[in-house]
Specification:
The chain is α/β, with parallel strands linked by helices. It has 5 helices and 7 strands. It has a single domain, classed as Alpha/beta knot (3-Layer(aba) Sandwich).
């Protein structure tokens, strides 16, 4: 395959991804917040697989919203339909997201691989917002400019000291739900969303 053919293929893939995103984004306008008030913040992630996978976990763990910073579009295919169920909020900069969450009374956490409180030891309040940075470059803001944001780390015991961002997000969501789950909405190992909403 020539370099010209490769460029055409890449451009076609991009167009198809954009069409899928626009179709799913229209459906997202009807999305209803999950039963837990926590929020996931995705700070300038790559528009490939991870965002869709995080939406899939956010739907599984019944998140309130997912906020996307600096993301014009992403491939919704890895979400396996979950993008239409979890409300998405789009921001051009981190600061607009920060101001929104601060006004709404959220306590914010940024995930850092080599610093901060261990996720095991942290006590996560109901109104928690978890920030995940770019897969290579990390967060887009200077942490010293937002001193209220607390650092969390996921304990790791192997030689590789990094996790895929969608895996890290899933671990954090699970731990949040584990700490905040109500026995009233948990029956026989499975919570139904209708029961949960009635008891919220």
């Amino acid at each position: 395959m020539s370099s010209r053919d490769i460029r055409r293929r890449i451009e076609l893939d991009r167009k198809n991804t954009l069409k899928r995103f626009q179709r799913h984004k229209r459906k997202n306008l009807l999305a209803v917040s999950g039963i837990y008030p926590y929020i996931i913040v995705l700070d300038n992630l790559k528009p490939t697989f991870n965002i869709g996978k995080i939406f899939r976990s956010a739907e599984a763990f019944s998140a309130h919203e997912v906020h996307l910073i600096g993301t014009d579009f992403f491939d919704p295919s890895p979400a396996v339909g979950a993008f239409k169920y979890v409300p998405a909020r789009f921001h051009e900069t981190f600061d607009t997201c920060y101001q929104d969450l601060t006004k709404r009374g959220y306590r914010m956490y940024v995930l850092e691989p080599d610093g901060g409180t261990s996720l095991i030891d942290a006590r996560l309040p109901e109104r928690s917002a978890f920030i995940f940075g770019h897969e290579e470059f990390g967060i887009s803001f200077e942490k010293n400019d937002y001193k209220e944001i607390e650092a969390l780390q996921i304990p790791q015991f192997g030689r590789s000291q990094s996790l895929n961002v969608s895996v890290a997000a899933s671990i954090v969501m699970y731990e949040y739900v584990r700490q905040n789950i109500s026995p009233d909405i948990y029956r026989n190992g499975k919570a139904t969303e209708q029961e949960a909403r009635e008891n919220a």
